[in-house]
Amino acid sequence: MISRRCILTLFAFLVPLTASRGAPTHRPNIVILLADDAGWGDYSFNGNRQLATPNIDSIAKAGASFDRFYVCPVCSPTRAELLTGRYHRRSGVYGVSTGQERLNLDENTFADSFKAAGYATGIFGKWHNGSQWPYHPMARGFDTFYGYTSGHWGEYFNPPMEHNGLMERGQGYIVDLCTDKALEFIEHHREKPFLCYVPFTTPHSPWSVPPADWARFKDKPISQEASNPKAENPDETRCALAMLENQDRNVGRLLKKLADLGLEENTIVIYFSDNGPNSARWNGGMKGLKASTDEGGVRSACFVRWPGRIGKGTLIEPIAGVIDLNPTLHALAGVKRVGDKAQDGRDLSPLLQKTLETQWPDRHLFSTWAGKVSVRTQQYRLDAEGNLFNMVADPGQKTPMQDKEPSLARELGEAVGAWKKDMTMPTLPSRPGSAVDPRPIPVGYREFPITMLPARDGEPRGEMRRSSKAPNSSYFVNWSQTTDSAVWAVEVIHAGTYSVSLDYTCPDADAGSTLELSFKGARLQGKVSKGWDPPLITDQDIVPRSTHGESLMKEFRSMHLGEIQLPAGRGDLVLRAPEIPGKSVMDLRRLTLTLR
C-alpha cells in the first residue's frame, strides 16, 4: 500500500512537470493579430493561389473560421470597435487622422478589463485611437507599448518607434521589429496570463517590403485579377502579397513561441484584418475596396484558435463582426468587463464552442464611412445608394433587386435610418477651413509627463503646408514667412515648467531663425542654431509614394528650444518665427513638451 507521504511526493514531482508541458494553470492567454489593409482574398486559405500563408491558415485549420465576418471600411473605426464592442460612431472616432481618430475618454477597452483581472497587457504595432495621454494606449489598459500611435508610418526600415512614451530608432523591418517585441513580452510573462495585441502595419502603404520577400514576387505574373483589372497596379499587388508572406512568417514566429513555451493549449489566438484591400487586387469577386461600404470593403478573414476548446476546422456560418470580438473574448476567458456602457456586439462563444441551444437569430450589421451607410443581414445587403442585393445568389453585387423586393428594401432602409439616428454624435465645434479635430490635446499629466505634438495633430497657418495630403506621417514645410505658424489646440492640465524640443531639418544656409512659442500669455524664444539637412529616403519603395500622396521621409534631429512656464487651461499653442534670416525656417515633424 502506498503511503500518504509517497503520494504527496509523487504529486509534488508531477505538478511542475505537467505545468512545464503547458497544462492550463490560469485563465487563457490572449493573442490578437490584426492585419492592416489586407483583403479577405489575400490568404491562401481563402483561395488565393498567388501566395502562401501557411501559418495564418493554420489558425483556421486548428480552430474556427468565419464565413462572413465584417469590419469597418477603414482603420481606426475597426480598432475602436474591437476595443469597446461598440459601433465607433458612439465612441468619438469619426476619422483617421488630425485627432479625429481619438477614442472618447469615457470608453473602456478590453485591455482595461484584462488588466483589472490580473493579465499582463501589451500592444506591439499600430494603435490609431489617440496619441497623447490619456488617449495613449498605456492609458487605455496596456502596460507596454511598442509601435506608433498614428494611422500609418512612413518608414518601414530602421523606423523611429515609440517605446513606452519615448522615441527610439529600430534596426530592421517594422513588422519584424514589432514581432520581436511581442516575443519578448510573451517570454517575460509566460508564468502569468497575458494579453498580447499585435496590430501589424502591413500591407498598408508605403509599398515597402524586405528585398528577399520582394524577390519572390517582382517578376511573378498576376494569375488572379481584381474585379476591375484595369484598376489593378501589378506592382502594388505583388508588394501586398510579399508583405503578407512576410507577415505570415512573423505569425509563424509567434505561434512557435507559444508552442516552445508550452502555452498553445491555453492561449486563444485571433487573426483578422481592419478593412478591405488597399488596392485593386483579387478579392473573391466582391465589389468594393478599402473605404467602401460594399461587401469587398468590409468583409475580412477571421480565424480563432483555442486547442481543445474550439474544434478543428469549425466553420461559423452566421454573419459576425469586429464589434463581437470584445464580448466574445470576455466570455471565453471568464473575465468581467470593466465599464457599463451597452455593447452592440454579441458573444460568439456559443458558436465557437458549439454550445448553442437555440437557433442563432438573424441580425443587422451596419457599415459606415464618409456619410455612407450599408446594412447586411444573413442573406441581403442594402448598399449606401439604396440598392438591394441577394448576397447568396449575387455575391458580386451585380444585380439590384429592390424592385422585386420593395418591402424588404423599405424595411432595411428604415433600419438604416433608425441606426443613423441612434448613432448621432454630439455636434463638434469646428474651425472654418480646418480638418483638425477641435477637441483640445491634453498636455501635462504627471503620470505621463511627455506630450508629443506631431505635425499631423496641428494646423499649419499662413503659407505653411503639410509635406503631403496624407497627414498621418507628414511634417510641416514651406515655412518661410513671419506670418506663418504651427498651431495646436491644447489643454494644459497642470501648470508648471515645461521643457520644449523640436524634431526638425534645416539647410545649413538657413540656420539662425528666431522661434517663438506662446500659450495664453506665456512665451519662449530660441534660435535655430545649427542646420541639419539629411537627404530624403528614396530607396525603400516598390511603388513611388507620389501615386498615393504620401511623404518621402528623412531623419529628423531633435533640438532643445528651452523651458516655458505654462498656465493651466485651454488655448492655442502657437509656434512662429518672428525673424527669418534665410530662405526658410525649418521642416518640422514634432514638438515635444515635458513637464518638469
Describe the structure.
The structure is a single chain. This protein has about 600 residues and is α+β, with helices and mostly antiparallel strands. It folds into three domains: about 20-350, Alkaline Phosphatase, subunit A; about 365-425, no CATH class; about 440-595, Galactose-binding domain-like (Jelly Rolls, Sandwich). The chain contains eleven helices and 29 strands. It has helices at about 5-20, 55-60, 75-85, 110-115, 175-190, 210-215, 235-260, 295-300, 325-335, 350, 405-425, and strands at about 30-35, 65, 70, 120-125, 145-150, 160-165, 165-170, 195-205, 265-275, 300, 300-305, 315, 320, 365-370, 370-375, 380, 390, 440-445, 450-455, 460, 465, 475, 485-490, 495-505, 515-520, 520-525, 555-565, 570-580, 585-595. The strands form six sheets. A ten-stranded mixed beta sheet has the order 7-6-5-4-8-1-9-11-2-12, sandwiched between helices. Strands 18, 20, 23, 25, 26 and 28 form a six-stranded mixed beta sheet that branches. The longest helix has 27 residues, at about 235-260. The protein is globular. The termini are far apart.
